[in-house]
Each structure stands twice: as C-alpha cells, then as structure tokens.
Amino acid sequence: MRAAMKLVTDAQDLLEKGDVPGAKRNVDAVIHNDPTIWPAFYVRAQIFASQGKYELAIQDCNEALRQYRGCVEAALLRANINAHLGKYTEALKEFNSLVALHPRAVTLARVLSDRAWFYATCPNASLRNGQQAVKDAKAACSIMIWKDEHMIDTLAVAYAEVGDFNSAVQYVSQALAVKGISPNGAKLFQKHLALFQQNKPIRL
Length: 204
Fold this sequence. Notes:
Blueprint: H1 2-16, H2 20-33, H3 38-50, H4 54-67, H5 72-84, H6 88-100, H7 105-121, H8 130-143, H9 149-161, H10 165-176, H11 183-197
Helix pairs in contact: 1-2, 1-3, 2-3, 3-4, 3-5, 4-5, 5-6, 5-7, 6-7, 7-8, 7-9, 8-9, 9-10, 9-11, 10-11
C-alpha cells in the first residue's frame, strides 16, 4: 500500500512537471495491481482532462468518488469538466454542493475560486452572477492570504463581469506581481489585462 501511494504521489509530481506519459505509467501500474486505491483514479482523471479525454476523466472522477465520497478534488474536477463541455447547470449544481460541504480551508478556497470563475465567465448569461463571483473570489483570496495568483486573477475576472474594469486591472496587475509566477500564468494574465483595458469581460 505504501509503495502504491508513493507511485501515486510521484505521478502527481510528474504531471505537475509536464511529464504526462511518466505520470500515466505510474497510475496505470497502481490501478492494475490494486483497483481499490482511489487516489490513483483521481490523478488519472487529471491526466485524461489534460489530454482532452473528458469522458474518460469523468469516468475516473466517478470511480474515485464511488470509492471515497469525500474526494472533493475529484468532484471539483468533474464540475470543471462539465462546465468545459457546456453542461453548465450540472456544473453549477456540483459547485454549490461542494461549497455546502465546507471542506478544509485550502480545498474550500479552490472550490470558491472555481465557482467564481464559472459565475463570471459562463457563456450562458442566465447562469452568470458577477456579484456572487466577486464575493466567492474575495473569500478564496482571503483564505489563501492573497498569495495565489490564479485566485487573484479570478477576482479580476469577476470585477470585469460586474463592469468594474478599474478593479479588474488592479487585481490582474496584483496577480502578475505575485512572486514565482509561472511563464504560462504570466502570459494568461497579460491577455486578461489587455481585455480589461479595452473594457471587455472574459468568457469561457
């Protein structure tokens, strides 16, 4: 069991470093040897999602949650995939149920930030809620002591949705100033900044 969990942890590290084949080899080996190790399904779901294999990712999220109902991260990933696939009502229902669960602080921050992103950027106007997006994003930033650049960027996106482009520019600039920001993150935030300077909100 300990060796299997080490393989899963290593797979997560490899995935974060961009070594998708290495990560997949690890989790496939774990699942092959012991299909009751639910974290392996969650990591493989992340891998499938990163490859655009969304149906397979959802299957693995479902399996992780079947084995361990408390795997909030798998439910959150499923909600984000559903949003990406245009299943907006389903995604929002899942975000709301996850917020109602009151998971541990760091997880709650992720859930609130992802729901804020959804409320601010959903292409379906009837589901957008800029005021709630600002509220959720502020709460997430506060939990993370304003150190998570992606959550600060989400707050900027939420302000753009309510038409407060000055605040949007202010917060995306703050996100860009966070220490240790990745090149990809910087590129994305610059793109957001350019849109806010033209008084344009972000859409999924």
